[in-house]
């Protein structure tokens, strides 16, 4: 199984017993029966098959099968629109790739093939059980001593390495999901965790004490707008007093204030007080403005880190996807592909 995310690749080798169930020359082989992976990542369901005779006419994957009806090809399910890639063929390989995983994708996936022979239909059981989970930081302990644990709803494959962040800055790495240092006195600090190789899929930042601490929350994570229009990208900061702040593109080698970038000259405006919310307005949008935008700030005590994902902006000239009476709209995830 190979897991991938944009900008990072994590390859996981699974040593598992191959599952082959078949009869009279029919068989479907799944490399592994159970996979637990992160929301937002990509998964390959490796699979191969054999059949006794004839020519394969149809191949597809499915998750549900009602009584007396043919199972539904996942390609026809709008929940998976733009997120499925069938890497198999009509001879032996039946590998399926699913991108931008969501928790509701958790299910048992099975492969089905049809041939041109009478009765030439076969489905491979038991299939592959896919569990999709997000990361969360759990804070436990009393008022004096606190413990942080990076938790998931299923056990991630291949014993991952956990990465810890404090106030957006890389802090520590460990194979244990529990943070090993004391955090009891960090009243203003926020903590987040991620899995190595998937740093852009970190958990939401949590406060050690109460709900008020240093963290940046973006109003929208994805925005798609028309070329030539105007867009507002906003965030809030869970800190009562910032001394300076700016927006930047994440694809720059070092954070660069957009107001000083010649490519945005006369097209960028910042709004918001020191208490926020903070808004980046870009006018006369160009397709090359498509990028991920992040916010950073300083206080008297620290600089907010640059590690966390911000808002991804896509600028397009394809007017068929838009209602041009509005300034900008956020599209469903399927259009982001």
UniProtKB/TrEMBL annotation:
Gene3D superfamilies linked to this entry = Immunoglobulins
Q: Which residues form the Ig-like domain?
A: 126-209
**InterPro entries annotated for this entry?**
Ig-like_dom, Ig-like_dom_sf, Ig-like_fold, Ig_CD22, Ig_sub
What Pfam families does the record tag this protein with? Ig_CD22 (PF24518)
Which of UniProt's keywords are assigned here? Signal
Q: Which domain of life is it from?
A: Eukaryota
Q: Where is the signal peptide?
A: 1-22
Q: What name does UniProt use for this protein?
A: Ig-like domain-containing protein
Please tell me the species this chain comes from: Oncorhynchus tshawytscha (Chinook salmon)
- State the organism's lineage: Eukaryota, Metazoa, Chordata, Craniata, Vertebrata
